[in-house]
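User: Some background: our group keeps a shared notebook of sequences we're curious about, and every so often someone picks one and asks for a predicted structure to add to the entry. Today it's my turn. The entry only has the sequence so far, pasted here. Could you supply the structure so I can complete it?
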Amino acid sequence: MAALEMLGEVEVVPCTVSAEVFDSVRAGRVDGAVLPIENSLHGSVSEHYDLLFENDIRIDRETQLRIRHNLIAAPGVKLEDVRHVISHPVALSQCRKYLAGMVGVSVMPFYDTAGSVKHIMAEELRDTAGVAPALAAEEYGAEVLVTGIEDHAENFTRFHLLRRAGDAVLDGLPEPNKLSVAFVVEHRPGTLVAALQGLAEAGVDLTKIESRPVPGKPWEYVFYVDFRFDSAEKADAALKALKRESSMVKELGRYRAA
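Assistant: Of course. Here's the predicted structure to add to the notebook entry:
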């Protein structure tokens, strides 16, 4: 849904796991990928930060999508027939109140929201429902049993459009005003504070900070920051300030804030 909103009529190529998505972009099997990076209720998608850091991939664009979770089953299945509910763990966690009220129903994680509906239809399951967007029911010939089962109406997910770092920037993209970057500071007192102070002095607006462990180096971290800027000069100055205090800086992308 986010891909179609950002790009219009494109061919969407399915992948099973996120690592496969990055592999497909890197190998040139697809022109780009759209993946979630953060949900307003559940928080960040940590795996995608790790994959962005590890791969030569660039963020070109972002969008926000209002998330509506629906209980979906095969045609003719009634709500009282449902004994199992499957979906991605994040979706299940966003529907805890409704699912807790389904007496005698087991809730089980699945690899994907839309994939849960696809699985139900492919296996002709008559006692199982999935939690997914309404588009999944339309795509796979299922039916929506209950609409809007999420715990909170203010449920948004932020998605990134990802492309190979060496590819030319797409025509028609709006002027960037946001930058995402990963950096590692020296493991000594005050370095993170100094790095963030450098961003403030450069005149940029820090909108997010996230940390992830450095593999093989216990208690050391990669920091990810997003910041807004009103000129390319300020963005460059902020990167320069980070590099003064960091052992590694990787620019992940410049794009227009959603």
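Suggested note for the entry: The mean pLDDT is 94. The CA atoms of residues 63 and 258 lie 5 Å apart.
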